[in-house]
Structures are given as C-alpha cells and as structure tokens.
Amino acid sequence: MQGDFHVTDRLDLPATEWRRVSPKLVVVELVSWGLTLLIAGAAAIVCFVVFHLWWPGSVATVFAIVALVNVILVPRRVRAIGYQLREDDLLLRRGIMWLRFVAVPYGRMQLVDINRGPVARALGLSELKFVTAAASAGVTIPGLPEAEADDLRDRLVALAETRRAGL
Amino acid sequence: MTDSSARQEPQASVAGAVDGPRPTAARLADGEWHRLHPASPLLRGGIVLIAVLGFVVSNLRERLVEVFLPRYGGGDQGDPVEYVLEHGIILQVLGVIVGVLLLLIAGFYVSWRMHSFRITNEVVEVRSGILFRTNRKARLDRIQGINIVRPFFARLFGASKLEISQAGQDANVQLSYLGTAAADELRREILRLASGSRAAAQPARQAAGQNVIDRRMNEFLAPEHDPGTPPASIVNIHLGRLVGSMLLGNGMIVALVVIAAIVVWISRTGNFFVLVFALPSALGFFSYYARRFTRSLRYSISGTPDGVRVGFGLLSTTSETLPPGRIHSIEVSQSLLWRPFGWWEVRVNRAGHSSTRGADNQANTTLLPVGNLADVSKVLELLLPELVGAESVTMIERGLQSRGGDDGFENSPRRAAWLRPFSWRRNGYLVTPGSFVLRKGAIWRKFIVVPQPRLQSVALSQGPVLRMLRLADIHLHTVTGPIRAHLDAVDQDRALAFFATVADAAVRSQESDTTHRWRSGEATGDSARLDDGTA
Q: How many beta-carbon contacts under 8 Å exist across A and B?
C-alpha cells in the first residue's frame, strides 16, 4: 500500500464555470475573527487582573494561534467559494482543506433566506440560504452583493416554481 | 387558514360546497361537515376527569381518616367537609357540585358540536374550539400517511383515532375520536380522493353482527377493520424471534458491558454503592424493552392499492398506511449478535410522523422490527415497486450479505483500507432503476436505499486525509430521520461520476414522479394493485 498516498490537484467537477462571491467577504471574515480574538484576549486579561489566574492566558494564546491561521487562510477560503446555476440544479462549492460540493435541484426548494450581519451590511453584502426539506444540506452562499443576492433569490424562486415537486 | 367556509354556521349538514355529485356511499367524505364520535370529549378528557376525582378524594382523605379512626382526627379547622357540616350549607354545596357537573357536560357537548371536519376532493379541513376557534386545512396530495390508533380505553367504546400525517412540525390533522367502522371508511375514502383515482367510491359494507355487544366484540377482536381489502400480512414475527431479537439487540450488548464493568468494580473494590446508580438505569432499560415488546406484538405489514399498511399493538393498536412515494430512505441493518440468526431490521425516514410513539418510543420509523432475509426482501419489494424480479432479489441479497468483490456494486478501492480496515471490500454503491443503493459496514452491516424522486440534494466532500488517499465521501440528503445516507472512502474519480449521475437522476426522476397523486394515471373503475406507484 505504499503508493496509496498522493498529493494531488484539488478535486473539481468537470466542465464547471464557477461564479465567485465578492472578495469583500474577506473583510467580513477578518472582522469576525478579530472580534473573537479581542473578546478572548479581554477575558484572559480580566481573569489575570481580577482573579490572578494564569491558565486563561494560555487558552487565549491557543485561541490566538487558531485565529491567526484562519486569518491567513481566509482569502483563499473566500476564493474557493463558488456556485453555478445549472439548467436544473444549483451547484455549490466551498472549502480548501475540507472541500465540499452540493447539488440541489431547484424543485427541492422550500424557501430562500437572505441574511445580513452588521459588518456584511456595512459592506453591502448578503448571505443567501437555500432551504430544502433535508436538515443537513447546508446550502448557503455568503458574500453576495446585495442586489445580486436579491436577483438570485427571485431567480431561484421562479426556477423552483417551474420545476415544482412534492417532498 | 380562514376562508368563507370557516365563517359558516357550525351546522354540520349542508354547509360546504361539493364539486360534482358524489355517490351516497362515501358518506363521510362527501365534502360536507361532519361531527366526531359523541363520546369523543369523554375519551379525550377522561384522564382529566380522573385527575379531578383524585384531587377531590385526596382532599377528603382527612375526613375519611376521621370517620374510620376518630382518635387521630382532631378538630381540623381547614377541612372543607367539617366547615360545610357545621354551617349547614349542604344543599348549597351540592347545588354547586351539580352545577359544575352540568357545566362540564354542557362544555363537552358544545365542544363536540363545534368540532367538525369535512373532506373534499382537494383538502381535509377541521375546525374546533369554543372560544378560540381553530381551522386547519390540509391538502390531500401532501398526505404523508394515515394512522388509525385505537387506544385500549377507546377500544372498549368502539372508537378509533384517525390521524393524517403531514410534513412539518405539529402539522398533523387528528380526528379523535371516530367510530371504528367510520374511521375505516374514512381512511379508504381519503386515500381514494388523495390518490387522484377516478374510480367511484365503493359502497361501505356493514359490519357483521346484529346487536351492539356482538358488533363491539367483533371490532375489539379484529386486528384490521378495512372491509374492502383485508390485507394479509406478508411477514409474521414469531414470539420466539421477537424475544430473541430483543435479547440479542444492540441495547443488550451495552447492558452486558455495563454489567461486566459493575461486577469487576465490585469484585475489585468490595463496594456495593455503585448498584445505587445502576438501579434507575436498569429500570429504564426494562421499561424500554417492555414497551418495545408490546409495541411489536401482533405486528403486520401488507400492501394495499394505496400503499403499505403497518399495524402493531396488543392492547392499544395502531394501523398506519403509507401511500406510495412517502418513504424517503430505507435502511436495513443488522446488529452484531443477530448475524448468526440472519435477522435484520428495516427502518425508514419519513417526512411526516404520527404522534403515536413507535416501538423504540421515538417517532415510529421501524417498519420491520426483526425479520430474516426473505422477510426483508418481501418488505423491500413492497416499499420499492421498481425492485421486482430475480435480479433485484440477488441485488438485495448481495447488498445485505456479500463480503464484497465483483458483485455489481461499485466498491471502495484497496487504499480505503486505511480508513475502513474491515469493510472496504463491501463499502459501495449502486444505481438501480428508481433508487440509489449504498451498502457499508462489515461488523454492523447496513444497506441503505434512497428512492430517486425523494432525494433532496447530494453532497461530495473531501478532507485532507481523504485527499491524500484520493478518496471522497458522498452524502445523499433526505428528510430528517434515523437514517443518514452517507458513504465514505469512495474512489475520488468514481465519486465525482456518482455525484454527477445522482444529481442528474434526481432531477429526471422528479420530473416524472407522480406519487403525490399516485393513482391518477389509472383507468376509471380499475383497482390495480400496488405496482402503479411511480408508473
């Protein structure tokens, strides 16, 4: 079994034109990681000053390292998000290390959500969530410009209407 | 949910329009408003009455103690009976009691009068409530199942509960209670209307037996009441097999491990206090098994023109009909100790759930508590009408028992042994007409079938370890349930091809799927058997 391990090119679906999300999503991700880091750091400092505890500091350090690694990976991760409206289904790709492809037929749509966090809203971005009857599908496209997200939502609803299926 | 009909008078006679004349036989499903069994409020409120009675009795306990044991009594000032006797207001108190009783009865009567239902060609509609009116309308083509439950208490009165399952949280339509014959007639009519069949309603047959006692007795003893098609169960679970399967189930393995741990602990420390903790879990364990046992007794499964009918229960019985296309995935699994006996369990994922708990006290998802290979084949053929003929029987056998190799399934490559050291040989998938089939597990064997039109979405994922091995995972998403249709460590290129095939087949099969009106393609008056599911 010596030849079993390979470092290969990334897995990709053949003949797919991925549509990317807005690069501004990087900022949203960075801000959210920065905030977590700030809170963890503040908690550690409070623990040290008020209760004279050392160990929260080490926890915060681990936290900081994880956050830093994530911060470095964020731009690549954002570039890796892609979606495509095929003739009959929506195709979504996410992740670098943990790669994930999902295909959802339009007829399976139960509803479409559009969410905007505070930072994303300031940058004019929306997150689109495609909800099916299955709980675990997790079809979310973050970092869409607001107008594009609204267009996409209307388009998905229209497509679902023409391909209506039961459960 | 409010429309013109909701504002109509609760006169359950001529309200509600019907499109087209209906045969007189379909009395309850004629599109007009009908009421439930007159004893319904009593059957539903029975427990409350008993609780009130218990409360009164416990309040009078002091008084009773004093009557029988005067020495311990003592003049208790707070005793209401004492107070009543001292002030000579017996008549008033009795008046109040009678008044409350009358109010209760009047309340029951009004709530019965106000609770009505109707079934039209498109919807089933229920309205209820005295002060807070509720009107629920459910589309017939979205029915996920019809369940007739006969709790022991209601059975004595010849009443049944009919529940129409719909997808969604707390979305079921309950008609509790109906007369047993009425419930059966109604189920047949609802299924006929929902199926889109243009066949005329069949006349309801009168139950045998002349007087009330005879009829009650017949209803009580008969396991199944549908007089139109008395389906014989295709699987019979012997008592011995049921007991054996429970003794050798997964739960028992856990229990044995725990008992062994306790014995070792006691013999090494000489401390018995650990038994204090073991006792409650032992009680829970036994009650779980007792419930599972009684719920699996008199189990039956059979095919009707309108889907699969599953019945079980000894004292309280349940008979559930699942129309075609309402089963979202099927899993056949075998616990380790069942293997020498060749026993299997069949479970399903469904969109709607009856509120009646199943054998494992969860929403009822077990379609076959225990059965051998032949039983499983029969049940799968019933659930998946496309799987017929010798070829599919071989496929099922291989899916269940094969150790792997070149047997029609696309199995994992040898390098998957890094992740699946025992099962890589049989860890595989197959696309059959109408279904996706996964098989996995060498020790705890599993065989999963997802009907193509029921697939919600498909995902392919790959983590760093899988990437190094050029493998990938495949997930077939269906509605929530006990089954996760998931296959890991598939060859990367094959997984990509499978992903594309599944995505395409899911779309195609949905376009041609007609199971929401499963008999709509059928000729008038024809009563074809269950092979018309996805024709």
A: 119
